[in-house]
Amino acid sequence: MIDASERIVRARNAQRAYFEAGSGEPVVLLHGIGARAFSWETQLARWSNAYRVVAWDAPGYGHSDDLPHSEPETAEYADALLDLLDTLAIERPIVVGHSLGALIAGTFAARHPQRLSALVLLSVACGYGHLSFIDRERLFATRAGDLQAMGIAEFAQKRAASIVSPHALPEHIARVRDAMSSIRESGYLAAMRMLTNGDLLAITPNIRVPTLVACGSVDTVTPPEQNRRVAESIPGAAFALVDGAGHAVYVERPDELEACVLPFISSIAKRRS
To answer: Which of 3, 27, 31 is CA-nearest to residue 17?
Structure first.
């Protein structure tokens, strides 16, 4: 269970929902395209012993309003994050993003470098903006068609097992499925459009904050070589591999993930204290 309460605020002109627990150095968690704020329940429970941990529901997810139009750019999600941080009086957090959340987090770091102290990118989705328009549209149409044909529940049921490793426990698959089955179609399709047109590797050389990139060794959604390439493109970034984990590394291997992420977060927090 999450030892944190869901909160709702007005950030600029939009409603934003988030979970918060703990106090101290702020750590902000950004979920992936098929997840929710509560997907971070393990990290909210554990990391809040030492930090102020905030996990948002991205625009279009949970009780967070959609963005103003249905085909947003990555920068609009990054700016929505800035609005939430302003509302919560969080000046320079450590920002942790998973998958699509990593794309948002990286964009935020490049766009608002003065508003974070460090960056953790997990199972990084880079976006498909480097592909041709025709290929991007084909990708979007396939995913959107599956969602609309199946409905949220069946879509989540069919995709959940691909998000973890072949050796994942049933409870891990269930957690991924339950989060995915709670998404809103409008929010998912907007995020998919953003992912289709985004291109993280085009901006990673502009990231100038301490950065750690980590992923599971058997991640087939965002493979290790892709994550390693992201790390190599960011000046001074470190790379870590979590043995045996699939894409949902923070769900499936929280202990092993903490072993590489928490020392990094601690080093940043000590530097700022």
So the answer is: 31
The fourth-level CATH superfamily of domain 5-272 is Alpha/Beta hydrolase fold, catalytic domain (3.40.50.1820)
251 near 175, Cβ under 8 Å?
Answer: yes
Give me the helices (H) in 117-223, please.
133-150, 152-160, 170-180, 185-197
Going by C-alpha positions, the residue among 272, 129, 125 that lies closest to residue 210 is 272
Beta strand segments in 31-129, E:
52-56, 94-98, 118-122
Q: CA-CA distance, 140 to 159, in Å (whole number)?
A: 16
Strands 26-30 and 14-21: unpaired
Where residue 63 falls among pLDDT bands split at 50, 70, 90? very high
Residue type, 121: L
Evaluate whether 33 touches 188 at the Cβ level (below 8 Å).
yes
Whether 94 and 116 have beta carbons less than 8 Å apart is answered as yes
Domain boundaries, given as residue ranges, for the chain: 5-272
pLDDT digits (tens, 9 = 90+) for 75-119: 999 999 999 999 999 999 999 999 999 999 999 999 999 999 999
pLDDT for the residue numbered 1: 47
